[in-house]
Amino acid sequence: MCLEKVTASKTPFPVVQFLAPKYWPTWLGLAIVRLITLLPLRTLAALGHGVGMLAYHLGSSRRNIALKNIQSCFPEFSQERCEQINKEHFSLVGQSVFTVPANMWIKGHRFAKRVEITERTHYDKALADGRNIILLAPHFVGLDAGGFAISQERDAISMYQYAKNTLMDEIVKRGRGRYGGVLIERKAPLRQIIKAIRKGMPFYYLPDQDAGRKGVFVPFFHPLASTIPALGKFAKMSNAVVIPIKTRVKPKGAGYEISFGEPLNNFPTGDDIVDTTTMNRAIEDMVRTMPEQYFWVHKRFKTRPEKQETFY
Known about the structure:
By secondary structure, the chain is α/β, with parallel strands linked by helices. The chain has eleven helices and nine strands.
């Protein structure tokens, strides 16, 4: 199916604004990373694997956090399998150190060659039917590549968190929005997101980080996880269908595979607990297909219900 793509206008990069000495270390770091990302994707994957293994062996804190998450979510797995998933995960995270900026900078036609989109029947049908769409995109290591691929086809929106380093913030916003993606800061008014969805822009929604005391506690696999109960509200207010999407990093720098699931059924119900539980179940289904690719180094269970002991 051929989809219309509207190219977003770009303003010149405000170089003069970032010439102060405090930005020089950032410029140096960007220059080094930029040179490295000129290497072929397979080479970047190999370098990233080395970085990931170094972090695995030296970063005991994050290694233990990830292992605790994996063991808690998959109690049926043996210790050996959990540790193997953890090693593979660190390898993928290490690769992303190089591949994410590379995907932000390379030519669009080169990036398109790195991506394979499969199982897109439900997404294409929703587009053909003129439906408003929310793409449920959990935190897999290849998350950014999925967002780039979606926005290459048509303008889409996503949320981001403002970086304290204003130069890095500008670089990231321009990189992630290079194909027409529109980034909305997490603290922006809700109406901005709803308005964009109603205009027909798919919403690439990242739902699964610890929500602190603002969230509701619903199961994520087995433990309770503090989760923002926003997806049901977004879907109701924009009259949108919710379609799961996952991005798999292929082995040895072979690129990415993006696939869409079936739309969430009977969603939303209007009950925050029911809807948020349904969302987490959909995420679990995706994680089970490639557990090593989920972002386990995040403290997903940091916030606990009252009177429960610390998780980590």
